[in-house]
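Try it yourself: sequence plus zinc ion, in.
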Amino acid sequence: MAREQDILKRSAPKRPPRLTSRRIGSHTSSAGGVQNAAERAYRLGCNTFQIFSSSPRQWAPYELGELQCAEMNRLRAGYDLKPLVIHTNYLVNLASSSETFLQKSMKAFRGEVERALALCAGYLVLHPGSFRGSDREQGLVRTAAAIAASTQGLDLAKGGLTILIENTAGAEFSLGGSFEQVAEILERLRGAVPVGACIDTCHTHAAGYDIVSEEGLYVTLQHLDATVGLNHVKVWHCNDAKAARGSKLDRHQQIGKGMIGKETFRVLLNDLRLAHAAFIAETPIEKPGDDRRNVDALKKLVAGT
Ligand SMILES: [Zn+2]
Ligand SMILES: [Zn+2]
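Structure, out:
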């Protein structure tokens, strides 16, 4: 008996990173090629991850070779990394009232969709844009129309790709500072393109919603359900906040070290109505290991792990 146990011990594979019943991951660097992000995410203990497929603040997309994509898919299958989430470049503004900028944004966004399809991503996250130069309602209409127009002829449903509209902190002219605005864009696109929402906890807090007190969080989730629908929220960006509620300042902080606090994340991660979603940290890396520590912090909050 003792001998049998010894044999089992010796042949036991190296313990894989601890996984939970939830999909938890991190925004991960694609330095050296997108396929490297999959390896990095696995080593951070993620079972889902987010990347950029273009430089976040430049127009030039990353070069994607067929071999890179194949390697990315092989690693993701081997490491059970799903879904893959891609975040659109920050320059894209599909609500722009300048025709030249709108055309440039639409071309760039089509490229984002093409790369997301090539990488077999499940979700492409998009900020709804800025309505500077017109009004909010026109901005919402323009964004929805531009998403539909720039994806024409691309079969997102066949590729299993859904575009997610992210809520924002609602500063100045930025669209998406309320759940109603996110819901309106989704409503306008239903039937045309597969769409859903990405809710960022830091943006929600900065936009003025109470997600800190127990009752406030309950009410905010009810409100989100009544507008966007909790089943349509496919990704939660899990970020603590440096700034106060209602400040409109988008300043991400490490989980549990900001104005939100870790109890909010415990509630979100254990709410069965949200169990289908991916939870992704976009927390700052101030010292080496912060990315792993934030993923670990989220994983520890899931009950029974
Ligand atoms: Zn974002
Ligand atoms: Zn975010």
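One thing you can check immediately is this: The domain at 20-300 is CATH 3.20.20.150 (TIM Barrel).
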